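Final paragraph of the annual report: two paired records, presented back to back.
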Amino acid sequence: MEKVYIASIVNSQKKIFTNICEQNNLQTYTMSNESSLIEEVLEIKPDILFIQTSLLETSDDNPIEKIKENKELENLWVIIYGTRDNGMEMLPRYEGDYYVHLPYANLQMEALFRQLLNKPKLILIVCKDPQKFESLHKRLLNEKFEVIISTSGKESLDRIKGVFPDLILYDEKIKDINVVSFCETIKSTQIINHIPFVVLSDQRIAENAEQYFEVGVGDIFFHPYDSNQNIQKIISMVTPPPKGKKLKALVVDDSQAVRNVISKMFKQLGFSVATAENGYEGLVAAGKDKPDIITSDYDMPVMNGWDFCSEIKKNPGLSDIPIIMVTTRSTKIDIKKGEALGVVDYLPKPFKTEDLQKIIQEVITRAKEEKKNLLISKYVSTDALKNAGDVVEGIKERKPESKFISILFSDIVSFSTLCENHTPEWIVNLLNKFFDSIIEALQKNNAIIDKMIGDAIVARFDTGDKAADALYAVKSAWDMLKTLDELNKTSDEALQIRIGINSGEVILGNIGSEKHRLDYTMIGDNVNIAQRLESNAPKKGCLLSEATFTLISEKIRVGERQVYTVKGKKEGVAAYILRGFNE
């Protein structure tokens, strides 16, 4: 059960929030003494803090900042509440996550708890013809959303303050209030201007799109409205960040005024912000805070913007952080220099805050996409990614092909026994160290990691040169065995592996179900032979087929030719134990 602490000096307000929290099965605590507020919060360690505006405004120090200095509370959700119409403006100043306007407390709290407690999200669809959006409505219900439909813009404005939806989908064809006027009204109303707003349109007119985005429209969905892409966007829009988790921004500029403007804008977007007044201070701050995004001026004392960017890109732990250059220098040469130093975008001074805000949102979206692609690449082989991209782009059809390649199988000897004798955490840590070392040995020999199954690795060598691929496979096996010897010197428990290698024709392509999941992989008799050779290989050894040996016989040393009986083959399979390489 999550814990809530309510900081209020008004008993009636305490009662309102206590009742709402208890109705949502939250363990509730209330402030007993204003002077001991910080001590009480530090002792209780709540998940959510409700705090009255007057407690913040009358305090010499920011109590929330003091509370969040405690590592266990740095991700605390902070809800500021009061009667001020402009209370949202307090959030950046006091590191708040949400503002509750007391006249609407019950309704706002219901919306808030949908976010905090992961309850079904509420979507308002404002449309001229509900039948036209019936498929979207059904799809949203199937995705466990709650949906309200309204056919009037004016009626919707009243309903929004009555239900505080998590997302508004607005039909471009609504006549009584057009898109621009409706969105302007939403964005100018403090208590609802945080609600994401999406236009539903059946015409792709550039002028309309520009006008919509200028007034604060978050996105435009085109027909089919219930497409997987649109549904995924909706899920992303209404899914809250991890509790209390904020993206970090670093603002580097020697002008206090510019730092304040950019910092305020970042805070309004939900970032936590660090600042620095020159490149050297920025470098120290970046190393300490590891920000998600950096904005930097060019002309600064001590260390200028270019030197700062250069130092950031030299540091492996910081080099992936996107940097936006905000400066008076805007010549083509300056922009080219920025690109060379990894500057992802460039905004000349003087700038409009909405322009910088748009750039920041684009950069963060791009960075998230790159992180997602990097993560995907750890689960999917490189040629599978390329194949998927080619299919999407229409470069080639999704047809399997027959190719001559070399195949390598390896697994850990007695892995099941190892699992029985150790905890799951120990096994996972061991495997991760093992894979980190072994995969590196494979990749330096042009291996494509086809898959990893438990403790097993399946790799293929597919450059198009039969002899080269066979040699790459054998060198990989040799390097894997040597790498494992080194790894065992520092390991609690020594590992042993077996390796099998074969060369020949395989079927390579997308295997699986068109409707559910495709796996870009290899199948065929030669794949099976490689796997069977691996199971027959000696501990800490490699067994290679005669087909592989024939391709590179002059370059390697092997044991005597032996014929092995393997499962699924009537005739035996000739193979050799790898002994080394000829000079």
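The closing record of the year follows.
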Amino acid sequence: MNRKLEGQVAQVSGSGRGIGREIALKLASEGARVVINDLDQAPAEQTVADIVANGGQAVACILLIRPFEVFNAQRCCRSAALAPTCSLRQSQQCRG
């Protein structure tokens, strides 16, 4: 297993299902600690559970990320005690 992202934190929007989920699982498999962002709590928590079950670290952050809400998303990262800063990757178009 390639752990090239060990020590890094990634936030993936729309990662409760679909492509966003697959991106989050891949990042976790490479060692990243992942903030799972989705509008729906149940799929986000399932993605977190799957990552943790495979030995990774993840936390769910339920909020809509619009361009002007990036700061709030990063604050969510910090409040989850994952890291002082986070990278943001949007896997789907923002709604709202």
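The radius of gyration is 12 Å. This concludes the annual technical report; the extension proposal builds directly on these records.
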